From TrEMBL:
Key words of the record: Cell projection, Cilium, Flagellum, Phosphoprotein, Ubl conjugation
GO biological process, one term: sperm capacitation
PANTHER family: ROPPORIN-1-LIKE PROTEIN, ROPPORIN-1B
UniProt biased composition (Polar residues): 17-28
Region (Disordered) residue spans: 1-28
Family the entry assigns: Belongs to the ropporin family.
Protein name as catalogued: Ropporin-1-like
InterPro entries: ROP_DD (IPR047844)
SUPFAM superfamilies tied to this protein: Dimerization-anchoring domain of cAMP-dependent PK regulatory subunit
Summary of the function given for this chain in its UniProt record: Important for male fertility. With ROPN1L, involved in fibrous sheath integrity and sperm motility, plays a role in PKA-dependent signaling processes required for spermatozoa capacitation.
Organism: Salmo trutta (Brown trout)
Length: 156
């Protein structure tokens, strides 16, 4: 299954045919079949919505899913007015994309940071705080982000 991206067309999976995986619904006792593609599909939608920061999420979702059903590309353009703040959820997205690699280039983290529409000054502050060079140990960067969050949220 192709997941919609800003760079190419999307294909909506045929969800009319249940697959062999499923679970029983606790309220009705009926078997509910969940397409294997659904988790990846919803993850991509969530990332795209975070990047876009739409003013009207319902309107955005309608346009997004309509494009998918029609097999048309959907352009995800970040709203330059809406800068996100660093949150646990944003850290989770970064961690899911970079954690397995151990060492990551500063440029690569910066590109993902920018694609999430995060403020550049926050990124630069974290880099300065951790005294990072061009090659960054992911776990140390993650720890610096957590430290930044703690200070911003007055945890300590």
């Amino acid at each position: 299954m192709k997941i919609p991206t800003p760079l190419g067309p999307s294909v909506f999976p045929d969800m009319s045919r249940p697959n062999s995986s499923g679970s029983e619904c606790s309220r009705t006792g009926m078997s509910v079949h969940i397409p294997q593609e659904l988790p990846d599909f919803l993850l991509q939608f969530t990332k795209d919505a975070i990047r876009a920061q739409p003013e009207d999420i319902i309107e955005y979702s309608t346009a997004y899913f309509t494009a998918m059903v029609k097999g048309q590309p959907f352009s995800v353009k970040p709203n330059p007015e809406a800068k996100l703040e660093l949150t646990n959820e944003i850290l989770g997205i970064l961690h899911s994309q970079l954690s397995e690699r151990g060492t990551v280039r500063k440029l690569e983290i910066g590109l993902i940071w920018k694609s999430l529409n995060m403020p550049e000054n926050t990124f630069n502050h974290i880099l300065s705080m951790g005294k990072f060079g061009e090659e960054i140990e992911w776990n140390k960067f993650l720890a610096s982000c957590c430290s930044y969050l703690g200070k911003v949220n007055n945890i300590y």
